[in-house]
Amino acid sequence: MTDDAYEDSSIDATARVVDPGGTDDERRFEAALRPKRLADFPGQPRVSSQLALVLEAARRRGAPPDHVLLSGPPGLGKTSLAMIIAAELEQPIRITSGPAIQHAGDLAAILSSLAEGEVLFLDEIHRMARPAEEMLYLAMEDFRVDIIVGKGPGATAIPLQLPPFTVVGATTRAGLLPAPLRDRFGFTGHLDYYSGADLATILHRNAALLDVESTPDGISEIASRSRGTPRIANRLLRRVRDYAQVHGTGVVDLDAARTALALFDVDVSGLDRLDRGVLEALCKRFAGGPVGLTTLAIAVGEEPDTVETVVEPYLVREGYLIRTPRGRAASDKAWEHLGLAPPEPTAPTSAGTPTLPFGSDEGRFG
Ligand SMILES: Nc1ncnc2c1ncn2[C@@H]1O[C@H](COP(=O)(O)OP(=O)(O)OP(=O)(O)O)[C@@H](O)[C@H]1O
Ligand SMILES: [Mg+2]
Predict the structure, then answer these.
(1) What residue spans in the chain does CATH classification 1.10.8.60 cover?
(2) Looking at ligand 1, which residue's alpha carbon is closest to its atom 25?
(3) Which atom of ligand 1 is nearest to the CA of 80?
(4) Whole-prediction pTM value?
């Protein structure tokens, strides 16, 4: 994903199969379906109860809460939660993103205009320029920013006191945040993939909001094929609705869900074309691995970053892919899923190869 692509926000990493490009329509749809309050936010029970506590305590103290960092794969609700935080605090939210802050001056301008208690949402915070990052530490800790006036030896720093405010940072790559910045966040919420039941709750509510009739088995079929991701669930719901309206009874039922999802290349386990592409490359071209991330990404024609943040976490979590010190390897489950016979036991995919937790950047070999 390039900075340009980010800035017009039409490129969405999870949009890669069913709805390439993430259209205007998509953004309108997302905005309309975003839960507004914590109580309407299903799933993520741990993060949501922790956050409820942090916010309630702040409310009782009558002071802004600690800064909050939200991390996790795309489409799990980081932006939604940032907006919910502001709504719960009844404060305005200022939204910007790491790639939009290329100079410390960009950040200084934003910081110096913040009102007391305001929420500053910094999306993709790991992509902020280094000098801006340093300015942010100081602002987060001491509510102070040094405005540099002039250039060269005559430049002077004029300290500016800021009213207390709350930074909400979001990142798909917490491991890339420098430790001093990470440490400035009093609360970090790690979002994890959603259970099928939580996705079904979300889909049920959204079908009603979209005025689409649905059956429980239709909804649970979509939920079970959504890669644990609400954004994907919402998108698949729309595709099944389309199918039901054009070819079916207009009802999102099991039949419509099965046929429409097959049409859009989402398999029974919810893996899409890119997921399967990665597994196929791994098994067919690299004999199951291990193979480096970059090599694997090239084989499927994707950026290593996309493979690492969008594709891999889910495949690792579901046990299709194993991270080893020597690279990525296919598990027996991957071979089985592709209907292929795994190589004989001497293969490097054998169990016992240590796996590394994704998300920790120590685990990156590439
Ligand atoms: N818990 C939830 N309940 C209902 N809808 C949700 C939930 N979490 C996310 N969504 C929906 O999923 C979509 C994506 O959510 P959101 O934009 O908050 O994800 P994100 O984590 O910020 O993704 P990215 O990393 O791509 O920015 C939105 O349409 C949102 O309404
Ligand atoms: Mg977001």
Answers:
(1) 196-263
(2) 74
(3) 18
(4) 0.84
Q: Which of 3, 79, 92, 74 is nearest to 41 (CA)?
A: 79
Contact (CB, 8 A) for 146 and 98? no
**Is 240 strand, coil or helix?**
helix
- List, by residue range, all CATH 1.10.10.10 domains of the chain: 273-363
Helix (H) or strand (E) holding 148: strand 144-149
Q: For residues 44 and 77, is the Cβ–Cβ distance under 8 A? A: yes
Task: Summarize pLDDT for 206-255 with one digit per residue, the tens.
Answer: 999 989 999 999 999 999 999 999 999 999 999 999 999 999 899 999 99
Closest CA to 320 of 274, 265, 366: 274
- Distance of CA 79 from the midpoint of ligand 1 (Å): 6
Q: Which CATH fold would you assign to the domain 34-190?
A: Rossmann fold (3.40.50)
From the CA of 12, give the closest atom in ligand 1: 26
Which CATH architecture does the domain made up of 196-263 adopt?
Orthogonal Bundle (1.10)
The number of helices, as runs of H, and strands, as runs of E, in the chain is 16, 9
30 Cα–ligand 1 center, Å: 8
Query: Tens digits of per-residue pLDDT, 169-204?
Result: 999 988 889 998 999 999 999 999 999 999 999 999
Q: Which CATH number fits domain 273-363: 1.10.645.10, 1.25.40.20, 1.10.10.10, 3.30.420.40?
A: 1.10.10.10
Ligand 1 neighbours by CB, cut-off 6 Å: 13, 30, 33-35, 41-43, 74-80, 170, 172, 202, 230-231, 234
Residues of the chain with CATH 3.40.50.300: 34-190
79 annotated binding-site participant: yes
- 276 part of the active site: no
Written as six digits, the tokens of 277 are 């592409």
Among 203, 219, 231, say which to mutate for ligand 1: greatest number of ligand atoms within 8 Å of CB. 231
Q: Each residue of 8-64: pLDDT tens digit?
A: 333 343 333 333 345 566 677 777 788 899 999 999 999 999 999 999 999 999 999
pLDDT per residue as tens digits for the range 70-122: 999 999 999 999 999 999 999 999 999 999 998 888 999 999 999 999 999 99
The verdict on whether 78 is a catalytic residue reads: yes
Distance of CA 19 from the midpoint of ligand 1 (Å)? 16
